[in-house]
């Protein structure tokens, strides 16, 4: 029996890189050995808002800290923010060159989430932590993906992310990416506003595109009515970016397309294969396009990941990543809950993934003998 990863008999190792730094580094080495360009790694603290119950749950909420802040005057130091900062900085230390850091800003606790829920910027302590994280990531030659989260918090997250892109995406590439959820009806309008800002202010827009992971807790009316609508929205944005044609940007007699770096996170094989083929063809024909990378979640859709790896050409594209998280069992609970919802059709994919694994083994054996 071929074992690709060391396994523990606990659910975290199905979707998470490890509970400790040593376990996590070992998993990241395995991803590299399998041919992935690198890893997207996040520290597993977050807050999820359930629209149905109007309650928040997840790590990052300490009741004693929240009560203290609610009764005190101006908060000068928040222990939750500091704990999140330390965990995130430790995560940066696990990254290799070319890896990505994924940030869940709500993991910093109630002082931050209350600001986000009001559409405001977080406290200065959080802004300072984000500045430190950006600088440390840049020094390590790693990039940052700001995750989309519950819509209850998202407008505040968008504000701070746009400010970070304005400041740090000034060297012709995106250090910081915002995550756009294709299942939201509002995403085309949000993206158009951010393209306008990038065009007028001269920074590179980091565009990470996902379908969406909060369908179980977000307000249903905000989300497209059908999966087909979401698929169409995803492909329209992805292929529009690759053609440098979104709305008025890149259109005949429209506005010039701004600098964009694209990251496609998707388990939909049709979407990612079509995107890679379009990018490859436009590059071959010397047509304008944007840099693009691809990612799938750790423990999910390996047939998609391996299929992309098998398409890799002499230019090193497509660049494929695995997205994982790390931390203790408690810190991973909210993350694992969403993974379970997304993975509910895993049984139907088992045959495809087994076939993909066999094909990947054959590919590796063939590559070994080709160099002998």
UniProtKB/TrEMBL annotation:
Enzyme class label: oxidoreductase
Gene3D superfamilies per UniProt: 3.20.20.220
Recorded GO CC terms: mitochondrion
Molecular function per GO: FAD binding; proline dehydrogenase activity
Cofactors, names only: FAD
Pfam families named in the record: Pro_dh
Domain Proline dehydrogenase: 81-350
GO terms (BP aspect): L-proline catabolic process to L-glutamate
Keyword terms, alphabetized: FAD, Flavoprotein, Oxidoreductase, Proline metabolism
Claim: Flavoprotein is one of the keywords in the record: yes
EC number of the protein: 1.5.5.2
Assigned protein family: Belongs to the proline oxidase family.
Described purpose of this protein according to its UniProt entry: Converts proline to delta-1-pyrroline-5-carboxylate.
Protein name: Proline dehydrogenase
Native species: Aspergillus wentii DTO 134E9
Lineage start: Eukaryota, Fungi, Dikarya, Ascomycota, Pezizomycotina
